[in-house]
Amino acid sequence: MTEKIIFDSKKCTMCGKCIDICPGNALQMGDETPRLINSELCSLCGVCEDQCPAGAITIPSKPAVVYQATIIAGDPGIVEISEKIASALDLKKMPVGVKLLKQRESPPPGFRKVDIPLRHCVSVHMASLGASLYLPGEMHACSAAKAALGIADLPEKVKSGKVPYMHGLAASEKIAARIMEEVPKLEPGSTAGTLVAPLKTFAEAPDVVIITCLPKQAMWIANSLLYATGGPRITANFAGMQASCGDSTTLPLKTGKVNFSLGCYGCRSAGKLRDEEMYVGIPWSMIHSVVGGLIGLRKAMGKLEARAQS
After folding, report:
1. Rounded to whole angstroms, how far apart are CA atoms 45 and 65?
2. DSSP strand pairing (112-113 vs 208-213)
3. End-to-end CA distance of the chain, in Å?
4. pLDDT per residue as tens digits for the range 184-206
5. Which of 18-22, 111-115, 278-282 has the highest mean predicted lDDT (pLDDT)?
6. Whole-angstrom Cα distance, residue 86 to residue 93?
7. pLDDT tier for residue 62 given thresholds of 50, 70 and 90
8. Which CATH entry fits the domain spanning 6-58: 3.40.50.720, 3.30.70.20, 3.40.50.150, 3.10.350.10?
9. Which of 308, 97, 300, 111 has the alpha carbon at shortest distance from 211?
10. What is the percent of the chain with per-residue pLDDT over 70, rounded to a whole number?
């Protein structure tokens, strides 16, 4: 019987990227290579094979419908912006671009079409590690995110508060319904799908840039917004609900302002947002202000780093 995934122990460096990027949590580190711990969790999506830096993974029975990833050449200006942000903040994960596709708008070449249901927060995590994904609306697995992104209306069982209350996220269904009502949303049906990928792979500007970062790195982004103007002070809008979709994608897109989010139940349980991490959502219209501010803050950053090491 052919193995679902073959790991080459001679090439594998045990970096663990395949484990971290797997949307099904199907892999675990073994003695010499990662190993498949549950065959049913593996969808043969092929992302681990594409993203392995050592080329140590082979999926012999990958379905023909699975897109064979190609190297996407991003616009040089966008690549430069991505590199400046990552360098200034010393990011461990790549800045992620998100573009919402309108009805009848086709995705550009090079993005992997996702053929399995996937959450928006999971796609953001995968993109921060290098995957370039195209998620048609019907492949979005989270109904709450679909509503926030304008793919579909919120199902009644979620809108009524029944599901959030069932998960223990509110004191009553009525209160849970209010929480869901106040989540930022786009017009249902206005979005047909999403492009979620490393910012540096975009040939055209995305709608929003999402930074997965530590609080100190988010602090510098906040400082960057005030660097050239002195104000206004930052007002963050979040509720510990729908962090990657509502807080970090939809709200920046609707308001034209940078937003900060501490994460949510979904992105920490499914989207692999770590305990110490948070999101910053930056509308493209603000990206040059952020980059310019970060460059201007280099002296202050250096002084703080020197103090930390003394």
Report:
1. 10
2. unpaired
3. 58
4. 999 999 999 999 999 999 999 99
5. 278-282
6. 8
7. low
8. 3.30.70.20
9. 97
10. 96
Closest CA to 188 of 221, 241, 148: 148
Find how far residue 1's CA is from the centre of its chain: 36
Q: What's the pLDDT tens digit per position in 147-181?
A: 999 999 999 999 999 999 999 999 999 999 999 99
